[in-house]
Amino acid sequence: MRHLLSTDGLDAATATAILDTADELKRTLLGREVRKLPTLRGRTVITLFYENSTRTRVSFEIAGKWMSADVVNVSAGGSSVGKGESLRDTALTLSAAGADCVVIRHPASGAAHRLAGWLAETGTSVINAGDGTHEHPTQALLDAATLRERLGGLEGRRVTIVGDVLHSRVARSNAHLLPLLGAEVTLVAPPTLLPVGVESWPVTVSHDLDAALPATDAVMMLRVQAERMHGGFFPSAREYAIAYGLNETRLKLLPEHAVVLHPGPMLRGMEIASAVADAPNAVITEQVRNGVHVRMAVLYHLLAGEGEKS
Question: Class of the 137-287 domain?
């Protein structure tokens, strides 16, 4: 594997290998006083973020450092991008400076794929950390890792993804990855927040959250991305919460074993009630914790030589 740009087109064997590696790394580090492995010593990982991020950026930095890589953070505001430098020139500069891997978040869909094309001859790997409304593959992988851990596997499990599917790269990546690993996915959203062509995805579509919950093993709430909305997609925040928010009453509709996920940041009181976000079956902090190990696994599969892998 040279890059990780998308879950669409990722094969089940590769995805499972990444998840298995993440499990192994998690077990290896469990109980260690010093959480450090020498696997990527001498490698340089650069995070290039054109959008704000807490979880993704921090977990990639921790993942790289726990594997002894040198991690350099670059933000658009503190780089030559602020002077008008193009993405292509920035990418080539980072590669020439010695980057073995560039982790990019960008507001334009397809930016990670363009970056990989520009760096094709350099040997630098690219990881898509979220491109516009397109994909966020490592988020889907950490979601899958969390579901495997809590549900014992994904085969035959029913996952309901709720909310702003139209603007959600997390929804797109999960809609491809989870069915690939054997799960049945239902998207629940108002018609205005479903993308054109969603009927071609390997999912079921519904507008009725209450009807979907009793048969759900896991419900994933999505953030309403107001910053990407230009126009009225729903009447008001209150009406959205009434129709599509996960509150305490709806929580009781879930089977006892079901879990609640959210990619963050959460809009408490709108898409998810505080009591639900903090409930025992909410695995939101576990997603963050597993995100470090999954991103370690991705870096390992991209950057570790055959000698290290053996």
Answer: alpha beta
